[in-house]
Automatic annotation (TrEMBL), chain A:
Compositionally biased tracts (Basic and acidic residues): 36-62, 470-483
Ranges in a coiled coil: 104-131, 159-201, 279-377
One biological process term in Gene Ontology: axonemal dynein complex assembly
Function: Component of the nexin-dynein regulatory complex (N-DRC) a key regulator of ciliary/flagellar motility which maintains the alignment and integrity of the distal axoneme and regulates microtubule sliding in motile axonemes. Plays a critical role in the assembly of N-DRC and also stabilizes the assembly of multiple inner dynein arms and radial spokes. Coassembles with CCDC65/DRC2 to form a central scaffold needed for assembly of the N-DRC and its attachment to the outer doublet microtubules.
Region (Disordered): 1-77, 459-485
UniProt record similarity statement: Belongs to the DRC1 family.
Protein name per the record: Dynein regulatory complex protein 1
Annotated organism of origin: Salvelinus namaycush
A Gene Ontology cellular-component term: axonemal dynein complex
Keyword Coiled coil found: yes
Ranges annotated as spanning the membrane: none
A Pfam family matched in the record: NYD-SP28_assoc
TrEMBL record, chain B:
Subcellular location as annotated: Cytoplasm, Cytoskeleton
Domain of life: Eukaryota
Region entry Disordered, spans: 163-182
Entry keywords, A to Z: Cytoplasm, Cytoskeleton
Cross-referenced SUPFAM superfamilies: RNI-like
Pfam families in the cross-refs: LRR_6
Native source species: Salvelinus namaycush (Lake trout)
Gene Ontology annotations for the cellular component aspect, listed alphabetically: cytoskeleton
Protein name: Dynein regulatory complex subunit 5
GO biological process: microtubule-based movement
Chain ranges passing through the membrane: none
Length: 714, 452
């Protein structure tokens, strides 16, 4: 029964009403304002928008008061209304709580009552049960009946009690049912009332809202009006001011107009005069110009004709030009074709030639290889030839020597046996030697070797100026003697050093760079080498020649130092030896460094020609070609002249004599043999005669030899 | 639309002539006086009409141009099967038509201004409210889940049918009285099991349920209003599984201490629950103790347990929790039996609490002692904004004490002391203070708003 509370009431109650009043109110007010604003906007044109806004802003201060007031009033109204509505709920609440307490109380009473009743009925029941035992004891039917009836009465009483209780409870239930129904009705009434009140409230609130809205609007309107009037008066004031100003301006303007008119009149008269003058002047000008125009026209005519003629000519030319142009164009196209063809041809040619070139280079490389091969072969053959030559030489020599020996032997025999003279063996030096004649000159040292030797010498001499270098020195002198003997090695060395310093420009810069890390001697050696190669000096001889030349040059140059230099130059051996002991040489007077270049140039000029000549007959670099055979003939001649002419004459005379003797001897032998054969024939004939005399056999033969001779051929 | 085919053939020619010679056009008009270019439907319109007609077999909507889409949506029949429309159509206009057709009276503002949400929520509610256990196939509910899962945010179940042996149960069936009476004794008195539904509704935020039958009239039986233990168990589990739930309301469902404890046990540490409403039940002190436990193990902001049977000890338990709580904003204990014992406990708790803003202690048999403690609260606490003490016998002295307390307060915006037998003077004074506070708050709010 207790949960028949009104759910609608609860839902109403569930949302906090008063707390949300303020925001609602505010929202309503704001909505109102927005609506009014938008309406105003709708009503008015867009142009008035800004004006309107401003107005509202200005108004806001005044109307805010009104709005706030309305807001307050509405809040009050609303809270009052809600109170009015919730009063019902509160009343219902209090009734409910009262009912609950009542119900509780009733429940408590009922429980108490029931308990009491239960207790009393239990007592009664116990009494009855007790009586049952008593009744059992009773044996008199009367008593039994009495007790039974009393029991029955008691039971009935008990049941009556119970029934009464039940009735009471039922009545209570009925009552509570009634109450429930009443409650329901009451609650329904409450709900109705509430709804009614709510509706009233809504209506009332709506009305009041509308009123407030009207009021607010009125206030706004009022403010607007005030503003409007204010603005209008302002506006009119400004207008008036403006009007006054304009009037003033107009007056001023009129005054100024008058002034200007006077001025204009003046100007006009002035201008008219000026105009007349100018008109006259211009008239004359016009006449002149017309004349000129006529002239110009005439010339123009002329020119036109000329130009026309020219134009025609040019036209013709143009035509011609076009024709020629077309021709040229055609030609160009043709030539283009030709060019293209030629290009193609050229390309082909190039290709071909490239191929040819390739072939030729291949050929060249091949031929080079062949050539090298040939050279190798040639060298090989040359070596073989030389060897063969030697062998042939040796063989021939042997043969010749044998022949010589034989000749000498025969000579000796002739002398000793035929002539009977004592024979002396002639001196035969060449017989002792064997092998081909070797060329006497030794291979010349190259310039490089020479320099290095010289430098070595200088060094050794610098290091140990004692006996150690004397041997080398001697040797050097020996070789030097062959060339000139005038220039000493020391001198040459100094000269070379000088040359190295002065003729540095002949050395390539790259080489200098490369040389920088080397030792000083090495450096100078390499430098000299390169200088010499630049100058074309190759052999040691040339070096000495150069030195010699320098000496001579100095001789011819320096007159005042002639004596000293002559002593230096000619008597070098002694001087040198003397100097070696002293070990230090003041070579300042050798040749002045400044003159070196001049001398060098003179030397190259002088030296180059013979060089060229020399190079012309020195083509072979094989090294074995130039074997001179001049002495060979002499050698062989000497071989052949072993037997001198006188002896040969003797031999000739002896031969003739012996020949004659031989003839005699042969005749004699012939005679001897003739005699002997004659003797033999004689003996043989004698024998035959004897035989024929003695033999009769022939006669005895049965078959004659003639017959046999005849039969045999058949 | 109902044009003769002959007229339909003209338009191209007419269109050509229209530009060339207006007279020819007039001639056509003479032949068919009703004819006009505007009447001839465009091919696109015909196509769209066809789409509308065959929408059920072949729903084409997203591929259309926006203009055509609108056209189709305007003409779609509201009786199309939900399987087709539910996840395809998001246009509110269509759902508005559906709602209007189905229910007539509709207030879309309480559904977040979404007609679609309204349709699905009300549809699902209808299905559940008419669900009869053992008679209805659970698939009718489960079948709806994939369709409405994304749109249902609130479920307001206003009745739940008990299982019935008769083939049909209705209000006008008078004979079923005795039969159903017998049937009620059977073991199976459980209602619809929410466990199969709640965990599938991924957007559910509010859940209101009442275990009773609406409008039973003369067929009333106590058994119709039964909330069995098994119901409670299944509901509690379902609630636990629904992680998005924010508001839970179980009204008028005979929730007693045991059931309350079971529910609370399952709601402990719920990730999102903000509002709990267990009004019009039979919760006693033990249940109140459980609720007190829940207060500090959840994010509850609003607790409403009015019209229950909570007495002093229960109120003390709640007060103990309240003293330590820092999330609760609103507490409603209307129409309980707190008495002075409970009232004092709550008031003591308010001395320590700094979050509660709204308190309702109406109809709780409180008297003067409570009022004295409350006056202390009024002096010390400046977060409490609204207090309702109506229908308590505070008496003249209590009113004076409250008046004194109120004089030192500046935060209270609302104080209801109707039917508390306080003197008129103190009533007036209190209302004056409240009004002052209101004005101040209003002004403050206004300035804040202006600044914003």
């Amino acid at each position: 029964m207790s949960q028949t509370g009104n759910p609608r009431e609860d839902t109403e109650e569930a949302g906090p009403s008063v707390d949300s009043e303020n925001p609602e109110e505010r929202i309503a007010a704001r909505r109102l304002r927005i609506a009014a604003r938008s309406e105003a906007k709708k009503r008015q044109e867009l142009g008035d928008d800004s004006h309107e806004k401003k107005e509202i802003k200005e108004e806001a201060r005044k109307s805010q008061h009104q709005v706030e007031q309305s807001e307050k009033r509405m809040i009050k109204l609303q809270s009052d209304g809600t109170e009015l509505v919730t009063n019902i709920q509160v009343a219902a609440d209090s009734r409910e709580s009262q009912r609950q307490t009542e119900v509780e109380e009733a429940h408590r009473l009922r429980v108490e009552k029931l308990e009491n009743e239960a207790k009393s009925s239990l007592e009664k029941f116990e009494e009855i049960t007790r009586k049952w035992t008593v009744a059992k004891m009773k044996e008199i039917p009367q008593d039994l009946r009495d007790s039974l009836s009393s029991q029955q009465q008691l039971c009935a009483l008990l049941i009556e009690d119970k029934n009464k209780l039940i009735l009471e409870l039922q009545q209570e239930m009925k009552l509570s049912d009634d109450r429930y129904v009443k409650n329901l009705k009451k609650q329904a009434e409450d709900v109705d009332l509430m709804i009614e009140r709510m509706e009233d409230q809504v209506k009332f609130l709506m009305g009041s809202y509308r009123d407030e809205l009207d009021q607010i609007e009125n206030s706004f309107e009022h403010e607007r009006k005030i503003l409007l009037t204010g603005n209008r008066t302002k506006w009119e004031q400004y207008m008036k001011e403006r009007r006054d100003k304009e009037l003033e301006n107009v007056m001023q303007r009129m005054k100024r107009v008058d002034e200007y008119e006077v001025l204009l009149q003046q100007l006009r008269t002035e201008d008219a005069e000026e105009y007349n003058m100018i008109k006259i002047k211009l008239d004359t000008d016009v006449q002149i110009l017309e004349q000129q125009l006529q002239q110009m026209k005439a010339t123009y005519q002329l020119n036109q004709e000329k130009l026309e003629y020219n134009f025609q000519v040019l036209k013709k030319r143009d035509e011609e030009n076009t024709i020629t142009k077309s021709q040229q164009k055609r030609k160009i196209t043709r030539l283009q074709d030709v060019v293209n063809n030629l290009k193609i041809k050229c390309a082909n040619q190039e290709k071909q030639s490239r191929e040819e070139n390739q072939n030729l280079t291949d050929d060249y490389t091949r031929i080079m290889q062949q050539y090298k091969h040939m050279q190798k072969k040639m060298r090989h053959f040359a070596a073989i030839d030389a060897k063969k030559f030697e062998e042939v030489w040796l063989m021939n020599e042997e043969e010749v020597k044998a022949l010589v020996e034989k000749a000498l032997d025969t000579d000796r025999l002739v002398h000793e046996q035929q002539l009977g003279l004592a024979w002396q063996r002639p001196s035969l030096a060449f017989m002792e030697r064997c092998g081909p004649l070797q060329p006497q000159r030794q291979a010349q040292k190259t310039a490089h070797q020479a320099i290095s030797e010289l430098l070595q010498l200088g060094q050794t001499s610098g290091c140990s100026p004692g006996k150690g270098n004397s041997e080398v020195e001697r040797e050097r002198e020996g070789s030097e003697a062959e060339h000139s003997g005038t220039v000493s090695a020391k001198m040459v060395k100094k000269l070379l050093e000088l040359l190295c310093d002065e003729a540095g420009f002949l050395i390539e810069s790259k080489l200098l760079k490369l040389l920088s890390p080397l030792e000083k001697d090495e450096q100078s050696l390499m430098k000299l080498d390169s200088i010499f190669t630049a100058m074309g000096i190759e052999s040691e001889e040339d070096v000495y020649k150069l030195a010699d030349f320098f000496m001579k040059y100095r001789h011819t140059q320096g007159e005042q130092t002639q004596d000293a230099s002559a002593k230096w130059g000619v008597a070098s051996p002694q001087a040198e030896r003397g100097e070696f002991t002293s070990s230090c040489s003041p070579p300042s007077d050798l040749i002045h460094p400044n003159d070196v270049l001049v001398a060098l140039r003179a030397f190259t000029a002088h030296h180059c020609r013979p060089r060229e000549l020399a190079t012309s007959h020195q083509p072979s670099m094989l090294g074995l070609g130039g074997r001179d055979d001049t002495e060979d003939a002499a050698y062989w001649e000497a071989m052949g002249d072993v037997i001198p002419e006188a002896k040969l004459k003797i031999w000739g005379a002896l031969e003739t004599a012996l020949y004659k003797y031989h003839i005699v001897l042969t005749e004699r032998s012939k005679f001897i043999t003739d005699t002997q054969s004659l003797k033999q024939q004689n003996t043989e004939l004698r024998m035959l005669l004897h035989q024929y005399v003695n033999s009769r056999v022939n006669a005895e033969l049965e078959i004659p030899p003639n017959l046999v001779m005849q039969l045999a051929p058949e | 639309m109902s044009k003769s085919p002959g007229a339909g053939m003209y338009p191209p020619i007419a269109k050509l002539n229209l530009a060339a010679d207006p007279r020819k056009m007039r001639r056509i008009i003479a032949e068919d006086p009703e004819w006009s270019l505007t009447v001839v439907p465009l091919l696109s319109n015909l196509c769209l009409q066809h789409i509308v007609r065959n929408f059920e077999e072949k729903p084409i909507l997203e591929e259309l141009l926006p203009r055509h889409k609108d056209y189709v949506l305007e003409r779609l029949s509201p009786s199309l099967p939900l399987q087709v429309t539910a996840n395809l159509i998001s246009d509110d206009g269509y759902w508005k038509r559906c709602c209007k057709q189905r229910w007539g009276l509709c207030d879309v503002s309480s559904y977040g201004h979404s007609w679609k949400r309204m349709f699905f929520e009300r549809h699902l509610e209808n299905i559940i409210e008419l669900y009869i256990p053992d008679a209805t196939d659970p698939k009718t509910v489960l079948g709806m889940v994939p369709l409405c899962r994304n749109y249902v945010k609130r479920l307001d179940i206003s009745q739940l049918m008990p299982p019935i042996k008769e083939p049909q149960k209705s209000e006008d069936d008078d004979n079923s009285d005795s039969a159903s009476d017998m049937g009620m004794d059977g073991p199976s008195m459980d209602h619809f099991d929410f466990g199969i539904l709640l965990d599938k509704l991924s957007h559910l935020e509010e859940f209101h349920v009442v275990y009773r039958v609406k409008g039973c009239g003369m067929n009333f039986e106590w058994n119709l209003f039964e909330f069995t233990f098994r119901d409670c168990e299944s509901l509690a589990k379902a609630l636990k599984s629904c992680k998005t739930l924010r508001v839970l309301r179980i009204h008028q469902s005979k929730v007693d201490d045991e059931k309350c404890r079971q529910l609370v046990n399952n709601l402990l540490d719920h990730p999102s629950l903000k509002e709990l409403n267990l009004s019009h039940n039979l919760i006693g002190d033990r249940g109140a103790r459980a609720i007190g436990k829940l207060l500090n193990r959840s994010k509850l902001e609003s607790l409403t347990v009015y019209d229950n049977n909570i007495r002093g000890p229960g109120a003390q338990a709640i007060a103990y929790a309240l003293a330590k709580n820092s999330s609760l904003l609103s507490l409603n204990l209307r129409l309980n039996r707190l008495g002075d014992e409970g009232g004092q406990a709550i008031a003591q708790a308010l001395l320590k609490n700094r979050t509660l803003k709204w308190l309702h202690l109406g109809g709780n048999e409180m008297t003067e002692p409570t009022a004295t403690v409350l006056s202390q609260v009024l002096v010390q606490n400046n977060t409490l904004r609204s207090i309702n003490l109506s229908c308590n016998r505070l008496g003249m002295d209590g009113g004076k004490v409250l008046e004194e307390g109120m004089c030192h307060n500046s935060s209270m915006v609302e104080c209801d002391i109707r039917l508390t037998e306080v003197g008129q003077e103190s009533d007036y004074c209190i209302s004056q203070v409240v009004r002052n506070n209101q004005n101040q708050a209003h002004r403050k709010h206004n300035t804040e708003e202006n600044l914003a």
